[in-house]
Structures are given as structure tokens and as C-alpha cells.
Amino acid sequence: MDEKLSFFKDGLRLDGRRPDELRPIKIEVGVLERADGSCYIEMGDNKVIAAVYGPREVHPRHLQEVTRAIVRYRYNMASFSVEERKRPGPDRRSYEVSKVSREALASVILTSYFPRSVVDIFVEVLQADAGTRTAGINAASVALADAGIPMKGLISSCAAGKVDGEIVLDPMKAEDNFGEADVPIAMTPGGEITLLQMDGRLSRDEFRRALELAKVGCQQIYEVQRRVLVDRYSSIAAPESCEAAEAEEEA
């Protein structure tokens, strides 16, 4: 069977997207009452929730850093998040994703503001469809902002891949499983890359095109992140402003 026909039809991908098109994105902020900050995100069929706690005291205390806060990131896939039930608990991949995701976010968090403390980030994948690490980073970034953690800026994350010899944005599960390469990145709104990985083989020109396409995807995701945060805090601030104005009038 011709592989080209299995992934593209009339220039469109299996899910009807153009090669340079993101999957639909949905973001909700402040979904967990007991967390300091939280976010729920859907990127295509990925469903991911992130919770942030802190800054708070470090336990055990010998882990404290005198001049800065430490950042901890725990990525976990629920057993029911994939078609074949996953064994509960962390595995090698979870540790790897946690490490690179922490590094992607820690570089923009102003940790010097909170010495001897910790910021804990928990990311739980409820349903997986390729790109869970990028979805987790996007959710964690919004959750950090929701928690009021001082940052240089939001982090946005996206991947590009190679499928049937063509560079595509934001690969879904079938493209990720049977594609030829995958390039996830994370970056600031200013274009500073904080995460760059590659799985598979690309020529130098293909890598350059994949990187540029992933950057465009990150910029589009940033606009969504920014909009939901502005909408949330505008709606919170509006009633408070009305109450203050009413109190002033009464006085």
C-alpha cells in the first residue's frame, strides 16, 4: 500500500489539517481549588491537567538552596490515558520528560525571589495522543502564571515532525508513531528556546524547516495562553472594581 496515501489526501492530513496547522486547543485556568495555580489543556485528543504549589518550605530541609527556590516537576501518565493500560507509577520515560520539562520552565522562573523554598509542578496526562510533553509544558506554564509565580515570560511548547517525507506541525498519534522524525521545542515569547529535542533522522535543511515551523506553532499557542489568562483575570478584576466603586459612592 502506498504510504503517501495513508497519511495525506488532497494535501490534507488524516484529521483534515494542513501540514502547517495546529490541532484544536482548549485551555481552562484555575480548575483546582486547592492548588495555588492550575490549568487544564486539550491539544487535539490530549487531555492534560497541571497543578502548581508554592513557593513553600522545602522538605527535607537539607535540599534547600540558600540563594534561590528549587523547582520540581513531576510528569505522570494515568494508567487509563493510553489504549493499552499503562502500569501505574513513574517509569524511565516519565523521569526523562520530567527532567527536560523542568529545565524548560525553570530558566524563566525568578527563583532568586524565594530563597530556601520550592515550587512544585505536577502534570497528569488523562488522555494521550502524541505530544503530551509539549501539552504538559503549556499547561504548567499557565498554571505557574495562575499561581502568581514571578516569571520572565510564559513558555510555549510545540513539536514538528516528518511524515511521508513532508514536514508537519504538531503531529498526532499516527503521525508520531509511524513518522520519520519528531522535533519538540519550548520557547519564550521572545524566541528564546528552552527545550529542543529530536527523535529520528532529518537532513540539515529539514531540521531547519521543522524548527521554524515549531516556532510558529509556539507563537500561536502563546496567543491562546495569553488570552485565557487575560480573560480570567479581567473577569475577576471587574466585579472587584464594581464593589470598590459602590463602596466609594456610599462613603
- CATH architectural designation: 2-Layer Sandwich
Tally of alpha and pi helices = 5
Q: In whole angstroms, how far apart are the ends? A: 79 Å
Tertiary shape: globular
Major β-sheet strand ordering: 3-4-5-7-6
Rounded mean pLDDT score: 91
What is the third-level CATH name, the topology?
Answer: Ribosomal Protein S5, domain 2
The rounded Rg comes to 20 Å
- Structure summary, number of beta strands: 12
Flag low-confidence runs: 1-5
Structural class: alpha+beta
What would your notes on this structure say?
The protein is α+β, with helices and mostly antiparallel strands and 251 residues long. It has a single domain (19-250), classed as Ribosomal Protein S5, domain 2 (2-Layer Sandwich). 35% of the residues lie in helices and 29% in strands. The chain has 5 helices and 12 strands. The chain has a 5-stranded mixed beta sheet. Strands 8, 9, 10, 11 and 12 form a 5-stranded antiparallel beta sheet that branches. A two-stranded antiparallel ribbon has the order 1-2. Helix 2 (92-106) packs across helix 3. It is globular and about 55 Å long. Mean pLDDT is 91; it is low at 1-5.
